[in-house]
Amino acid sequence: MSKQSPNFSLFIGKPVRDEYGRQIGRIVSFATNPNGRINRVFMQHENGGFLRHSGDQFRIFGDNIVFLSLIKLRVKTLSNKIPLIWRKNQALRELLEKKKISKEMFNDLHNNFEGVLNQLKKEADNTLNDIEKQIAKCTQQVKELNSALMHLEIEREIGKINGESYKTAMEMIEASLKQANAESNDLEAMKSKLSNLFLGETTATVTKIDEEKEETAPDPVSALPSPPSLPEPPVLVHMKNVNKQDS
């Protein structure tokens, strides 16, 4: 946990909420490593299930404890690792061009970086699939909540529900809609963040190909029209296409 509390034991039996305010369970126990860092938290979920979670998924804010989704943690990790490995790979290429390392050394490290990037890309693909599934769940939840709202209004209109019951039900539905929409927006933002990594990768590859074409282009006095100006590189990340090997 990033903000570890020496009194974490005080949270045993206390409710745990997700980032959107929904109560999802209660802390039952926790485990620490030899250094005293909390690495496992045991939680009873609202459906009665008892599960063990990574300590990294919990954050303490004052008297409240919040549970972070694994998807969010994975997106954060991938968004840090992928650009870092790409930059290292680019730096390696520049060292080769400056003749500061041998071709053999370059090939060894380059293949290593390529392998890591390929693995990270697979993880990113899987994470994007999980995000899509979660977005679909949020969409279905919003649909069901709107249906519940419509039927609530019908029952009130025909006098089957009194004012107090209507108010209570309305507050519950509106709160749930707000939470579902907040989660959906959060997921869309994470999806966009990961997709931009792939966009940067594609743009970097196109730029590299265009640069190579310019290097082998005929004399500029040729009657052929000059190539169009290259687009500005993307702001977020520029990545080399890991599926293509250097020629």
Structural summary, described in words:
The chain has helices at residues 70-97, 103-157, 163-215, and strands at residues 15-18, 23-32, 38-45, 50-54, 58-61, 64-67. Strands 4-3-2-1-6-5 form a 6-stranded mixed β-sheet, with no helix packed on it. The protein is built from 3 helices and 6 strands. The longest helix has 55 residues, at 103-157. The chain is elongated, with a radius of gyration of 26 Å. Residues 1-6 and 202-247 have low confidence and may be disordered. It is an alpha+beta fold and 247 residues long.
Short structural description:
The protein is an alpha+beta fold and 247 residues long. It has helices at residues 70-97, 103-157, 163-215; strands at residues 15-18, 23-32, 38-45, 50-54, 58-61, 64-67. The protein has three helices and six strands.
Assign a percent range to the helix content. Answer: 55-70%
Give me the strand/helix succession: EEEEEEHHH
Q: Classify the secondary structure makeup into a structural class.
A: alpha+beta
Which strand order does the major sheet show? Answer: 4-3-2-1-6-5
Poorly predicted runs: 1-6, 202-247
Give average pLDDT, whole number. Answer: 81
Q: Please tell me how large the radius of gyration is.
A: 26 Å
Terminal CA distance: 45 Å
Shape: elongated
Main β-sheet description: 6 strands, mixed
Number of helices: 3
How many individual β-strands? Answer: 6
What portion of the residues fall into strands of 2 or more residues? 5-15%
What's the number of structural domains? Answer: 2
